[in-house]
Design a protein that fits this description.
The chain has helices at about 5-20, 45-50, 170-179; strands at about 30-40, 55-70, 75-90, 95-110, 115-125, 130-150, 155-170. The protein is α+β, with helices and mostly antiparallel strands. The protein has one domain.
Length: about 180
């Protein structure tokens, strides 16, 4: 399941983006940002599973709610997402519709660790086949900094206390429809 990598990438990106915002925030402030028309085009996991290129064409919106402490430090962040679109095999024009909805909540702890929980669903359906791929459930993980940074200068985290409850159908159904 690729949600761990996606969760780490999201947590790292959100942490990096939020640190600059957090220092300018007033004491114990809550900040809400709504972004619409976001284009998302990452289908690497499906392409890897299927063994042929798959494009993701989707657009959506995100609502980010950030809570800061009295010193302006980011303490928690909730990101609620909703995307609609389709997966495409550019070689034959076949498509699978896709929807992603749900919140991710990150709590930034004093020791540098991040407690992240994600709930929601990703559904991929095809005419005549119904649900061919999806994720419906809840995942929680604690990310602990290793003290190292990656090639872009972002902190590297270890995953601990990882738990998942729900259903993950994988991408094979997408491959079968798009092939």
């Amino acid at each position: 399941m690729n949600t761990k990598r996606m969760g780490l990438a999201m947590a790292t990106a959100l942490l990096a983006a939020s640190l600059g915002v957090g220092t300018a925030a007033a004491a114990s402030e809550t900040e809400t940002t709504v972004t619409r028309g976001i284009v998302l085009d990452i289908a690497a996991a499906a392409s890897q599973t299927c063994g042929f290129p798959i494009e993701l064409h989707t657009v959506g919106m995100e609502v980010a709610i950030r809570h800061y402490d009295a010193d302006g430090g980011l303490r928690s962040e909730t990101l609620v997402q909703h995307y609609n679109g389709y997966l495409l095999n550019p070689a034959n024009g076949k498509t699978v519709s896709t929807r992603v909805s749900g919140p991710t909540r990150d709590v930034y702890r004093d020791d540098g660790s991040i407690a992240e929980s994600t709930s929601g669903s990703t559904t991929r359906t095809a005419p005549g086949s119904g649900l061919v791929s999806g994720f419906i459930g809840h995942e929680s993980v604690v990310l602990v900094p290793t003290g190292e940074t990656d090639e872009d200068g972002f902190p590297v985290y270890d995953f601990v206390d990882d738990s998942f409850r729900g259903i993950f159908l994988g991408n094979q159904g997408v491959c079968d429809v798009l092939d």
